[in-house]
Amino acid sequence: MMTRACCEVLKALEGKTLVTAESLTGGGIGAALTAVPGSSRVYKGGIISYTNWVKANLLGVPEEILETKGAVSAETARAMAIGARKRLEADVSVAVTGLAGPDGDEFGNPVGTVFIACADGSRVEVLECHFFGSREEIRNQTVQEALKLVLRCWNAGRA
Question: Based on C-alpha coordinates, what's the Rg of the chain?
């Protein structure tokens, strides 16, 4: 299932470049994409932004957003996607931030809350998800949904 989704994304973005900004998945999207031979023609790489410092200093997420909305928010996911696309000079980016457990956050988000954003230069689409299961299941569901969002976002922008 995951390999098929990766192949679909890579085929759809042929001739373009894709980057990732990953928090809770810790590089899982990048790992899934690079498992496909020839993925380097599309996938440039990513930033694992597990801490707020990395989100702010490498991706350019405004400190105000992190302080008032939190790391797990639509605003943070949006800023991560925009920052990754700009800083890594790509056509498309996908960013994920969320809670895989064991606990929720100080903003009241429970485990399983995930925000995924896709930016293509002309627009940014943000998706809020609520996944269930173990830490690994939440992370895997996030990777799968992120790949689906890239396809939806890219295809919508071409329609």
Answer: 14
